[in-house]
Amino acid sequence: MHIATSQPSENRKRHGEHIILSLTYIGKNSDSNNGIELARLLEQWRRNNEKSGVTSALVVNDNYFIQNIEGPRPLINEILVKLINEYSHLGPHLSMVEEVEVRRWDGFLLKYLTSSVEDEEYTLKSFSAGADFNPYLMKSTQITSFLKAIFEDTESNKS
Question: Which residues form a coiled coil (predicted)?
Answer without folding.
Answer: none
